[in-house]
Specification:
- The chain has 105 residues and is mainly α.
- The protein has 5 helices and 2 strands.
- A two-stranded antiparallel ribbon has the order 1-2.
- The longest helix has 20 residues, at 31-50.
Length: 105
């Protein structure tokens, strides 16, 4: 299994010749995902205030990710972002994963 946009060889039974358990922790997100989720929240807020709007109802039911991504790519705005506290998040996840592995063994 490979990470987002990762071109390195995978670590698996196919490449190592032994069984492998891979644990992936997502640490980045595309701008298009953030925009799509934000759009859904915004539409929900408008729906709550308007009480009824067929256009907004239809828009919210659709997955707009691909359209948003296609709009962002030509402008160079479909960035891959990570939270500013990524170092602390990685440290916490490392502790959680290692504790889980140690307890299971």
């Amino acid at each position: 299994m490979q990470g987002f946009g990762n071109t390195r060889s995978e670590i698996s039974i196919n490449t190592l010749g032994i069984p492998v358990i891979a644990i992936g922790i997502p640490t980045v997100v595309e701008t298009a995902v953030l925009v799509n989720d934000s759009l859904d929240l915004f539409i929900s807020k408008l729906q709550d205030e308007a009480k009824s709007n067929d256009y907004l109802n239809n828009l919210k039911e659709e997955d707009n990710y691909e359209e948003i991504k296609q709009a962002l790519i030509p402008e160079g705005y479909n960035l891959i972002v990570t939270p500013k506290e990524i170092d602390q998040l990685i440290e916490n996840m490392k502790d959680i994963v290692s504790l889980g592995i140690n307890k299971s063994l």
